[in-house]
Amino acid sequence: VQLQASGGGSVQAGGSLRLSCAVSGFKTDYFVIAWFRQAPGKGREVVSCISAEGGRKYYADSVKGRFSISRDNAKKEGYLYLDNVEPGDTAVYYCNLQYWGGSYWGQGTLVTVSS
Questions:
Q1: What is the distance of C-alpha 94 from the center of its chain?
Q2: How far apart are CA 50 and CA 57, in angstroms?
Q3: CB within 8 A of 99, min separation 6: which ones?
Q4: Which of 30, 33, 84, 108 is the 20 to 30 A CA-CA neighbour of 97?
Q5: Are the C-beta atoms of residues 103 and 1 closer than 8 Å to each other?
Q6: Is 108 buried (19+), middle (13-18) or exposed (0-12) by CB count in 10 A?
Q7: Interatomic CA distance for residues 7 and 54, integer angstroms
Q8: Quick one: which H or E segment has residue 2?
Q9: How confident is the model at residue 19 (pLDDT cuts 50, 70, 90)?
Q10: Which of 7, 28, 31 has its CA nearest to residue 17?
Q11: 29 falls in which pLDDT band (50, 70, 90)?
């Protein structure tokens, strides 16, 4: 199973980015997609997650109203839309696949927000 995260980059405060997570090698669509981030010098924290069917979503308080999560099961991809970003959003963002037996991590993608 592989998760390929992409879409990171440098953006000014108030700008937008779309992160993508492409899943390969997992035989079904029955898994949760989660996004975590790790800022310099800090621990990894959950940002958002979405249920297998896409009907249930969770957002950390720090990103509510600014970030949006979605998924396309036909493409086996997950997305995290970052709007109105702030310097505090600077971090390496990781996508994570969770299923009944465990989880898989993708490599991170760096988001840098300048003021």
A1: 6
A2: 5
A3: 26, 30, 31, 32
A4: 84
A5: no
A6: middle
A7: 21
A8: strand 2-6
A9: very high
A10: 7
A11: confident
Instruction: Tell me which amino acid residue 7 is.
Output: G
Q: Write the single-letter amino acid at 41.
A: G
Distance between CA atoms of 17 and 2, rounded to whole angstroms?
Answer: 23
Please report the DSSP string for 31-94 in residue order.
-EEEEEEE-TTS-EEEEEEE-TTS--EEE-TTTTTTEEEEEETTTTEEEEEE-S--GGG-EEEE
Structure tokens, 40: 């310099």
